[in-house]
Amino acid sequence: MIPKIAFKNVWRNKERSLIVIIAITLALTGGIFTASIMTGMVDQKFRSGINNEVSHIQIHNPDFLKNYEPQYSIVSADSLAEVISRMPDVKSVAVRTRVPGMISSPNAASGVQIIGINPEKEKKVTQLYKTICDSCGVYFTGPRKNPILVSKRVADKLKVRLKSKVVIRFQNTDGNISEAAFSVTGIYQTSNNAFDDANIFVRSNDFNNITGSMIKPHEIAILLTDIDNLPEVQSALKQKFPGLDVENWQEIQPEMGLITSAISLEIYIILGIILLALAFGIVNTMLMIVFERTRELGMLMAVGMSKARIFSMIMLETILLTFIGGIIGMVLSAFLINIFHKHGIDMSSVSRGLGAFGFDPKIYPFITKTFYLNLSVMILSTGILSAIIPARKALKLKPVEAIRIE
Amino acid sequence: MNIIEIKNLTKIYDKETIPVYALNNVSISFQSGEFTTIVGPSGSGKTTLLNMLGGLDKPTEGEIIIDHINITKLRSRQLIDFRLRNIGFVFQSFNLIPVLTAKENVEFIMQLQGTPKGLRENRTNELLRSVGLGDRVDARPNKLSGGQQQRVAVARALASKPKFILADEPTANLDSKSAENLLEIMEQLNKEENITFIFSTHDARVVAKARRIVTLEDGKIVSDIAK
Fold first, then answer.
1. Is the domain of A314 the same as that of A178?
2. Residue range B144-167: average pLDDT?
3. Is-contact A399 B56, C-beta < 8 A?
4. pLDDT at residue B173 above 80?
5. A28-50 as b/e: b if 16+ CB within 10 A
6. Are residues A192 and A269 in the same domain?
7. Above 70 in pLDDT, residue B15?
8. Averaged pLDDT in 10-residue chunks for chain A of 406 residues
9. Per the confidence metrics, is the pTM higher than 0.80?
């Protein structure tokens, strides 16, 4: 009975209710869509970070992480990688050599991290090969000797193109400087400018030929079948290799985890503010409704409608009004997000700024189901909170006075 | 048999500053099946007496005993329930719920009482037929004339099977034909179904139909005439 009357009361003044519903719808659609853009950006950064840079777990010699000195390598890294690859929940494993050095062309030089990889195994862990455009060369294929993969930013800095010769120099474990000429066979470009500026890739075999196999691998990168299993796998690896440093993506790049959680919090704060602003509008509307219906409420009390029922009726009317706007807002935003998720939003005009922070210039907005669930709770809470003042106002009416109000 | 017994009822407004006696030591009783009207000039205390009888207001002093229950001692929550189960109200300005149909307005009171659906529907149809609105059950108040709305209000007041009906100026907002029609219906309900009506009115037509006329002046009963 109460829900039926409450629902009918919502539509008593259609114009006013529609204005409130439209206000809630638009505010929430805007808020949710903005949230989806932020979530999309962060998710892309997270995926790009996992897929191109850190993977899920990395293993190092604990001393290597202090100063990145080449002598602190992982003993029998290839055998360990073999063992790890057979562990449950492990999708793929890659072994890397990391040495700080210089890359130079006849035009310029740049300090970089020289990363020696096994191209085929690396392909299964990172998606570096996907960041090479069609006209930007190939990913370590072909007969060319000493191929090297540099980023577009490094190529531009050194003023080199495909097939250009570059020289890499680095300090060997014996303290001597080693150097070798490489040929640019591929130019990659990720969304993270800092990553692109810092990393060049060569084949481990070529690297070993230069160093005489003096420099051993420093890093084992592990990709899991499901990120949810990360804590168990990390714990198992720590137990298995107590002498090595086993870190997850959040420990390797704490800023990545920080951004993910900070943006998530920010989204809820923004929506909280939107809902708070809406709550004031809803309270105002409902107070007006209670004022207009004073005589009717007085009559209801007079004929025997309990205070609890009066309170519930006003509560329900407010919640319905809020929830109708909320649901339409959620559906409309889901529709918009779905469209833009398919085609992406091109933010190239500000891509330099975005790239500096490791964000992709093309954003694919998206929102999780959990977000919608949490938002539903937030909308319901807004409805309940907005209803308290008008419902209390209704309860304070005295039937003997209220029924005589014209 | 007395169903209402009022003893030494006094209501003073602005007790602290300049006391105004809306009712001054009123004692009166009403029997089951009465068709009584309370008359008197404006400010004589008619509405105050009706409010007290309906449990909508508390007296300053005195007792109102309805069917052996002293309602002046009831708490607010108990009074709401008492009103729901014992008193029917007909207001001057109809006071129907505009979003509900005639049928729903009548049924609503029984829903508050917790009457089962089947019983509710039968009684609603029966009541609306008895007030001559059997063909307008699905009309909303804004589609009904003033007289028809007041007849729905009478049906609603009867829905809870109350011990008596309090009608405060029920014909004040009606044209003469509608007022006449309404009074006939109420008189018929009173005679045929022994329903007790207590009116507060200025309307001579109501007074003419009443079988007992209680006159108030300055909060006191100055005459109580049974026809």
1. no
2. 91
3. yes
4. yes
5. bbebbbbbbbbbbbbbbbbebbb
6. no
7. no
8. 89 92 94 92 84 89 86 90 93 94 94 93 90 88 85 95 93 85 92 89 90 86 92 94 92 82 89 93 93 92 92 93 92 94 82 67 88 91 93 91 81
9. no
Q: Are residues A126 and A269 in the same domain?
A: no
Best of A12, A300, A303 to mutate (most B CBs within 10 Å, chain B): A303
* CA B216/CA B208 separation, integer angstroms: 17
* Alpha carbons B73 and B64: distance in angstroms, whole number: 9
DSSP state of A217: P
Q: Report residue B213 as tokens.
A: 């006329």
Q: What average pLDDT does this structure show over B153-163? A: 90
* Residue A19 structural domain: 2-49+257-404
Within-domain flag for A57: no
Amino acid at the residue A128: L
In terms of domains, do A40 and A143 share one? no
Instruction: Assess whether A354 and A217 both reside in one domain.
Output: no
Give the whole-angstrom CA distance, residue A265 versus residue A262.
5
pLDDT at A71: 86
**CB-based contact B89 A302, cutoff 8 Å:** yes
* Boundary-marking domain end, from A190, A209, A243: A243
Residue A251 lies in a domain: no
Whether the CA torsion B114, B115, B121, B126 is positive or negative: it is negative
- H-only helix segments in B19-144: 46-53, 76-86, 102-113, 117-130
A56 located within any domain: no
CB contact under 8 A, A302 and B83: yes
Is A222 exposed, middle or buried (CB count within 10 Å of its CB: 0-12, 13-18, 19+)?
A: buried
Q: Which of A243, A271, A304 is the last residue of a domain?
A: A243
Q: How far is A32 from A359, CA to CA, in rounded Å?
A: 20
Q: ipTM of the assembly?
A: 0.90
Q: Does B99 touch chain A (CB under 8 A)?
A: yes
Count of domains forming chain A: 2
**Closest CA–CA distance from residue B114 to any residue of chain A (Å):** 11
Whose tokens are 């149809």? That residue is B125
- Please report the pLDDT score of residue A69 as a whole number: 83
Asked if the C-beta of A2 comes within 8 angstroms of chain B's C-beta atoms, the answer is: no
Q: Is A9 on the interface with B (CB under 8 A)?
A: yes
Interface check for A6 against chain B (CB to CB < 8 A): the answer is no
pLDDT at B175: 87
A396 found inside a domain: yes
Q: Are residues A306 and A371 in the same domain?
A: yes
**Cβ <8 Å between A306 and B85:** no
Dump pLDDT digits (tens) for B51-83: 999 999 999 999 999 989 999 999 989 999 999
Domain match, A207 and A267 both: no
Residues A32 and A87 in one domain: no
In angstroms, rounded to a whole number, what is the distance separating the alpha carbons of residues A90 and B100? 65
Task: Say what the pLDDT of residue A202 is.
Answer: 95
Residue B130 has pLDDT above 80, yes or no: yes
